[in-house]
Specification:
Elements: H1 4-15, E1 20-26, E2 31-36, H2 43-51, E3 58-61, E4 69-74, E5 83-91, H3 96-107, E6 112-118, E7 123-129, H4 134-143, E8 147-150, H5 155-191, H6 201-204, H7 206-220, H8 226-234, H9 239-259, H10 261-265, H11 275-295, H12 298-308, E9 313-318, E10 321-326, E11 335-338, E12 347-352, E13 355-358, H13 360-363, E14 369-371, E15 376-377, E16 382-383, E17 388-394, H14 400-414, H15 421-447, H16 452-466, H17 470-488, E18 492-494, H18 497-503, E19 508-512, H19 513-517, E20 523-529, H20 535-546, H21 552-562, H22 573-578, E21 589-596, E22 600-606, E23 611-617, H23 619-624, H24 633-641, E24 645-651, E25 654-662, H25 669-678, E26 682-686, H26 691-701, E27 705-707, H27 715-724, E28 729-733, H28 739-744, E29 747-751, H29 756-761, E30 764-766, H30 773-807, H31 811-814, H32 820-839
Parallel strand pairs: 19-26, 19-28, 26-27, 28-29, 29-30
Antiparallel strand pairs: 1-2, 2-4, 3-4, 5-7, 5-8, 6-7, 9-10, 9-11, 11-17, 12-15, 12-17, 13-14, 13-16, 18-30, 20-25, 21-22, 22-23, 23-24, 24-25
Helix pairs in contact: 5-7, 5-11, 5-12, 7-9, 7-11, 8-9, 9-11, 9-16, 11-17, 12-14, 15-16, 16-30, 16-32, 17-30, 17-32, 18-30, 20-21, 30-32
Length: 844
Amino acid sequence: MHCASCVAVIERVLGRTVGVRSASVNFAAESALVEFDEKAVSEPQLAEAVASAGYHLITGATDGQTDGHVASIKAEGHDVSTTRTISIQVLGMDSPHCAMVVEGALKNLPGIRNSELDFANQRAKISFDSPLTAEQIFAVIRDAGYKPFLEEGRAEDLLDREKVEREQEARIMRRKLAVGGILAVLVFLGSFPQWFPFMPEIARNPWTLLLLTAPIQFWVGSQFYNGLKLLVKYRTADMNTLVAIGTLSAFLYSAAVTAFPDFFMRGGIAPELYFDTSAIIIVLILLGKYFEIQMKGRASEAIKKLIGLQPKTAIVLRDAKEVEIPIIEVVPGDRVIVRPGERIPVDGKILDGESEVDESMLTGESMPVHKKAGSMVIGSTINKFGTFSFEAAKVGKDTILARIIKMVEEAQGSKAPIQRLADLISSYFVPAVLGIAIATFGVWLFFGPAPAFTFALVNFVAVLIIACPCALGLATPMAIMVSAGSAAGKGILIKDAASLEIANKINTVVLDKTGTLTVGKPELTDIVAWNNAQQPEVLHYAASLEQRSEHPLAQAILQYAASLDQKSSHPLDSAIIAEGAKEKLALYRLEDFQAISGKGLRGYLFDGSQKYEAHLGNRSLMEDIGLSTAPYEKTIADLESQGKTVMILAAEREIKGALAVADVLKKESAAAVRTLRKKGIDVWMLTGDNERTARAIAKEAGIENVMSGVLPDQKALKIRELQTAGNIVAMVGDGINDAPALTQANIGIAMGEGTDIAMESANITLMRGDLRLIPEVIQLSQRTLRIVKQNLFWAFFYNIAFIPVAAGVLYPFFGLLLNPIFAGAAMAASSISVVLNSLRLRSV
């Protein structure tokens, strides 16, 4: 590279290369830092891309890399070992503005190459050159008011450490709130003797109030002083800056009045104290911060539960012996042994043996999947029956579960919630107010009447106090708190403000099938009798055969048989009862039971007088025993076309009938879909089922748009495709496999009866699992957002409208000055209006 334009050329070439996430070229060092997906593009391909632009390079991977791949690309002959990439947790960096503050602080450090900040997961990936060290980076981040620690070690240890840090932070805040609350009450009572005449004289003394307020100002509110440090050192501002300047101004002004009351009387204005203002504002805002902390960390808890699914050990064959080893020591090619009831350690292909595997925690499908030699198995799923061995194919970060964990994190990090208006405006608001306050002081000092300094100081403080946005801090959380309380009474749990801001814009709802649209477990739906048999007889045979089976299909039959003597609205009841089965069936004695893997089961039934051989299973089983299903094929095919699993019953070498089992639609699903469509919202169904089964369920629910055959790691991609088309998407699901899609969607809605991971990955949880609550969520969002906007308007109106008055613009015309006590009253009025306006949401 011989000029600065070479930088743009190389960055453009690399940026257009498939798989490249970011490219930063340094002309002076003749180097480039490139982050790319090593599955999509290789280092030689990167070299070819740069060579096509007329440049030559060599590559070398940095140390400390995590997901993806980071390469330091330098001109031949240069040292490539000086670039390092670290991944760190940054506690407290939980909004776009916080990420901007951290990024601004890092830019002041020489040697920083690149920084990727993920505020949703409070993580940062930073690339830097020596002699800069990680400790220096940590010092700058701490200086900006955040708590960093290096992500090293096992994922479980990192998450435990994060939890400890959060609990410690919450414990300190509780202690501060307890002390600050008691002191603030005493200050408030002592500040208004006309309202509380019972307070002793010493409690009303200004020096007593000063001593009581000082611990609140400098200990309870110590965290707000990071805002002053940001302003001075990094020339940026946040809500902490506003709180610190406002409360400190009130406190210092009151302290000055306490120490020098005669000085302030010289202007003809009776000195007023604002210790109560300072104390109460700090305690209230800290209380809001405490509640906010309680709602944070949900993403890491979800990730922790995902990680908890992974087995800790695996049994492998080493030197022809079975050895139990930690799962991190399993390598591709290992022969792994899995016994009934155990979790499968890693992904792989079965070598010998067969079994039924419960994959519901990953695929969401309630039916166990039959596995035999050559079948692929997924790590962390549960082996139900047989013992088998398989060859490990994908381990560690390459397993499906690990990819789901990664996708949850990435979707959380890439989601773009509405930026907090208060933080955005405050970054301009605070410097503007400071400028106005300083200008006010200068004008009054040089052009004001005597005593000029008194007038200047009083008006300076009045401007700062009137501009203190205490109501700004309450505008959103107060509305969310009331709205969330109202919603909770209806069974709707809302995680954060951003969800309510976005929910009213939803124009597309994607519904997962299993457990969301459907009940989530198989139920007996049809009984067909042939060859002079009756439905109760077919049920009696089938239930007797299944009595020793743990298979979900067997449980569906047994549960129905057991419910016959109970009041039920099952659609089969009328037919069964009409044919004589009015009471719970007394099952036949089962002998010589045999489960035939992948086909069905066989057994001998004894009714007290004679023994019958009976079979229950699929077509293959009927063929094995020499019975043809051709005469019944139309009925069987019709049932299968409705997405049902059909089991054929044979007794005494004759086909007697068939039973159909399916995951049935919830009774409220169709009504919910109709309501959403009436509101002009597109409704989609997302499922891993085949097209025929998916269409059958969708038709019953009234859904026209279907995405079928979608694998767990493709669900988030399907949501992203809808978003790319310009849709605001809500994803509704209940399973672990839905977690990436829930976090990728603009709004993730989890069903309350679903997994904890789905609920913690979602923005909103429907505790009743009733889809009819989705339209209510949208209506609640519209009302809440309207209240939030009103709150923000009044909060700023009270502040901004009085700033010119506080600066003294009315004095030349009317001789009026704004006493700081009225500035405090305006602040109180703005807070009260926000609270009262928010309380209107209780009636929603």
